[in-house]
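ARCHIVE CARD
Drawer: 12
Card no.: 0347
Subject: one protein chain, sequence and derived structure
Cross-reference: see card 0346
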Amino acid sequence: MKKSILAGIIACLESFSAVAADSYTVDPRHTFPGFEINHLGFSIQRGRFDHTSGKVALDSKTGTGKVDVVIDAASISTGLPELEKHLRSDEFFDVARYPKITFSSGKLSFNNEQLVAVDGNLTLHGITRPVHLTVDHFHCGMNLIAMKNTCGANAVTTIKRTDFGVSKYAPALADEVKIIIQIEALKD
């Protein structure tokens, strides 16, 4: 009887570990959410955010996971200090009132253990809206520099900035903003 109870406990533990998601910490040195916006019809302007943190949980075998990312809105980088100051102002990101941009998701979509999409909520400028990220690159493996298991991805979406209360110069300065996120996360 004791053997069957012990066997049952072991089987439960094994099944639990088989479905437990792996936990990862976002690598801020290799994670830079960026954006592209049409500038008055003349060009596509680009920028990125230099300070990002977060956690990722992945279980590709069961097709489940969770993503929680925090972006420091003041870390915006465009190559032009005066533009960055303007973008931090209350006319755009209003970083004094809204210092963080967050993304949270509990819905990851896999195709044969390959992450292909992430659906979640983006909070920007104090407004939360659902967004769908298409993942066009995903790879997990041993990072030979950090000597840690690492997962990386490239995700893309397009949002309307006016949906988030950022409407200065719209529509001359495009309403649609393409968001490109390259992310790497190290296994805990």
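Annotation on reverse: The chain has one domain: 21-187. The helical segments are 2-19, 81-88.
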